[in-house]
Amino acid sequence: MDAHAPTSRARLTEAAARLFQVKGYHGTSVAEVLAEAGLPKGSLYHHFPQGKADLARAAAALASDMMRDIVGAAFEPAESPGHGVARLCEKFARLFERQPHWRACPVQALLDGPLDRMSAEAHLQAWLAATAAHLDRLGDPAPDARARRLWTLLIGAWTMARAADDPGALRAVPAMMESADA
Amino acid sequence: MDAHAPTSRARLTEAAARLFQVKGYHGTSVAEVLAEAGLPKGSLYHHFPQGKADLARAAAALASDMMRDIVGAAFEPAESPGHGVARLCEKFARLFERQPHWRACPVQALLDGPLDRMSAEAHLQAWLAATAAHLDRLGDPAPDARARRLWTLLIGAWTMARAADDPGALRAVPAMMESADA
Amino acid sequence: MDAHAPTSRARLTEAAARLFQVKGYHGTSVAEVLAEAGLPKGSLYHHFPQGKADLARAAAALASDMMRDIVGAAFEPAESPGHGVARLCEKFARLFERQPHWRACPVQALLDGPLDRMSAEAHLQAWLAATAAHLDRLGDPAPDARARRLWTLLIGAWTMARAADDPGALRAVPAMMESADA
Amino acid sequence: MDAHAPTSRARLTEAAARLFQVKGYHGTSVAEVLAEAGLPKGSLYHHFPQGKADLARAAAALASDMMRDIVGAAFEPAESPGHGVARLCEKFARLFERQPHWRACPVQALLDGPLDRMSAEAHLQAWLAATAAHLDRLGDPAPDARARRLWTLLIGAWTMARAADDPGALRAVPAMMESADA
DNA sequence: CATGAATGAGGCTTCATTCAT
DNA sequence: TATGAATGAAGCCTCATTCAT
């Protein structure tokens, strides 16, 4: 009702998205999600009748929407495909540095837990499609292949960044996009 | 003791490596590991006094050794860096197709569970170093950068292959290594 | 208020009577009752301030009234005690066949849940008394004993019918009433 | 191992049989069963991997065996069918008086909870068969019909005894067996 | 009067681990 | 050494009920 205070459902979804991303679906208890959201025990099943699995689906949808927004915010002011790629990688590097739950690759969260593979792939394809659309708009001659290449590198780099506890791998992605020797 | 029949400890480690890779550390119960290994309930703590965490460390070490062997087997008969890369990607694609637990990216398993980040990175660095050594031997002018690029792409491609339920992404990696436009 | 459309209270009572009879008081949740009645979550406590226990009392009263009506409908057109008994047993057999919730013996429902034993016995005595009155009117020489005998057999036969998934036991009651050898 | 101290499994089964008979399957919590058996929380699933439903099956089997023993003990010393019937009813009346959990009709317990109908009927048929065998041995001319009649009356009488809080109904069964006018 | 949201106690079950044999 | 039994904390979920609107 109140547009300013987030609803209980939204708080649960946000808390779940954060926790599942860092600790995984099985590594996160619903009690933790409720505590993170600041809600009492019984309030989960009112908003998510299917329980934890429902929560995972909502969290994945939220993460997917956020990712689409981040891609949009990175590419919209860009003046060239390369500029957009650089902006996106830098955004991810800063998220990695500043927000603990962004240290885990958001794509991995889609593949853990009860989200069926088809839904996970649909989310991933949405990100690829959004990226390709921006690349196309900016004049990239092969937007689909470039988007796929970019995301392949991003996922791998994110995993390496996490293992190294350093966002350097994410910042190295633009150079890897430009040349075969980087 | 018997060098031909796998010992109980080895069977536990192998079962754990398989299960942790697919379902994650928190998604796998010790009961499942014991069932997969075909061993009785009480036998875990004889071989792994620290319990599940011990098992995770042993499983990671086993997976790491296997990966080093796979890299070696791919690069040793290779006649050029590109040939080695192609052989490695094809090996991974076939593992993905033929063995269910290889559908999950083996690097991800290092980042779940109680393995400390330093150990996970050490395993990953070992794979990078082994790959770089082979590339160097085969005459690659920038073996470290190429190894890093290869593994970044492999990790990303593996994740995409899993989401798509198709090893095509892994087979596309060699082309991505060669040119900035692939 | 509307005499033609059943009120919310009546729909709740009927739903509860049906469900408690089949699944028992503890086996039925208030959410199920509300769903069966097609009413929203919050509406129970407007009609039954004491909640589930209140509902159980109303359901028992409703079942008791229905039973008295069934006994009346069976015996009123009867031309002899035996005819009335036969009609009553046949009615029960048909209810058993046609309405799922009549597969469970209605007397059992009185003994589960928060209905105090005195109330349960009062309902049962009312059925016995109604039956005895009809038998007396039809000229039975020992109406009380015959009513008691009839209901003892009916309760047992109903239980057997349910276990056998066959109303035959109910249809066998009239013969058991007539002779010691049936 | 020790033949004198009942095993944990036996204590659980006995506790469950008692509690399910009085309070019903849904009205009894596993915590209550464990408390009644004097065992800690985790010990149920070691002996009954399927949990509460398994416990219900074991409890029904135990109750069924006990009933067969009671029937045997009543009829073996009997000198005639009528004598056996009288002894059985008196035994049940005394159980009703002396042991709280025998106030509930043991047949009803078979029809509550997860025991499938076929199993419930099998138990009931076993009691009928045991009773008929004894009646036959004692010279009853129609043992099957008489056994069926006896159990129909017993089940009904037990229910009435419970409602009345008085075992009189059970003690009235022999007379009902003998004559159509009782 | 009517209702969706909220609430926390308690339900059943699984867990990793320890113990007695 | 090897193992089935034991253990209780913690897991997810359902429950009957109350409340704010």
Describe the protein's architecture and organization.
- Four copies of one chain form a homotetramer.
- Chain A has about 180 residues and is mainly alpha-helical.
- The first copy, chain A, has one domain (about 10-180): Tetracycline Repressor, domain 2, CATH 1.10.357.
- Chain A has helices at about 10-25, 30-35, 45, 50-75, 80-100, 105-110, 115-135, 145-165, 170, 175-180.
- In chain A, helix 1 packs across helix 4 (about 50-75), helix 4 crosses helix 5 and helix 7 packs across helix 8.
- The longest helix of chain A has 24 residues, at about 50-75.
- The model of chain A has no long low-confidence stretch (mean pLDDT about 95).
- Chains A and B meet through helix 6, helix 7, helix 8 and helix 10 of A and helix 6, helix 7, helix 8 and helix 10 of B.
- Chain A binds a DNA duplex (21 and 21 nucleotides) through helix 3.
